Amino acid sequence: MNSGQDAEGAGESDSGPDKETKRLVERVREAIRARHYSLRTEQAYWYWIRYFVRFHGKRHPAEMGAAEVTSFLSWLATDRNVAAATQNQALSALLFLYKHVLGVALPWLDELVRAQRPVRLPTVLTEGEVRRLLGAMRGSARIMAGLLYGAGLRQIECLTLRVKDIDFAYRQIIVRDGKGARDRATMLPENLVQPLQAHLGKVRLLHQRDRKEGYGEVWLPHALARKYPRAGYEWAWQFVFPSANRSEDPRSGAAPPPPASGHHRARGEAGYGAGGNRQAGELPHAAAFLRHPPPRARLRHPHGAGAARAFRRVDDDGLHACHE
Questions:
Q1: Residues 159 and 304 in one domain
Q2: pLDDT digits (tens, 9 = 90+) for 6-63
Q3: What is the CATH number of the domain that holds 45?
């Protein structure tokens, strides 16, 4: 068995992978994309598969079995001391590899015991803490944090929000392809309308500058880019919170998209600067803000139930929009 240092190197890019590894990479990506898994799932699964191969001396997975999988998962739990969720993610990646990529019938994989995730109490900020946190934030980071709190958006839903999905007339936001691949309608807080409109004005100027320079295209889901070749350049499809830098589509094998525009760091600095005793900067999920969580060319990337329906709304001191 390799040392922990050798196994840790599996997370780094190989300088010269052999042909067998290249073929395995292509097969894994084809299987994942055929099932319309997200880019993050693809990256996470390939990370653990490569980690597993490197851990066992770069042996092909088809040559290994239950003993190797069990030893790898045990090493993660004992030597690396990973969380139960991390160990289960590694197990899911190996299950996918053997079942859907290699097509090997391994009934023992179904019998492997998954680590039990401990039950944790969520950290929910009080109304006063939320006020101090939002008051210490500025710019687009404050708008994004306000959407997490007031509209109940998940972080990835906020980062991938598009212009066309904000309805100022109805004061609502349509979340496309949310958790479970479902669309839903949520409320747009009244106190975010003007800041959001001003922010979109700046984003539109950025988009117009990109168009003049020959860029300005965004990624479109599924086959919309083939059906509507020019839709990626239209204003309605632009991201509400784009990156400050241009990048190429990571699915094409080019460089990955740039990171978010500092909203993690801004929220962390605001959390400590507001005098709170809780680390709000380390709580990216919307539940931390909610008292009652709701049920080809150069591209611009973001910093990734039920039909829309009319609803009545009540503003809680102008901060948190909630159902009446």
A1: yes
A2: 444 444 444 444 555 568 889 999 999 888 888 889 999 999 999 999 999 999 998 8
A3: 1.10.150.130
Greatest mean pLDDT among 3-7, 84-88, 198-202 lies in 198-202
Adjacent-strand bridge partners of 321: 315
CATH at residue 272: 1.10.443
Residue 48 belongs to some domain of the structure: yes
Closest C-alpha among 189, 182, 179 to residue 144: 189
Region for 321 from its dihedrals, namely left if φ exceeds 0, alpha if ψ lies in -120 to 50, beta otherwise: beta
Number of domains in the chain: 2
Which domain range does residue 62 map to?
4-111
Residues 177 and 204 in one domain: yes
247: β partners: 299
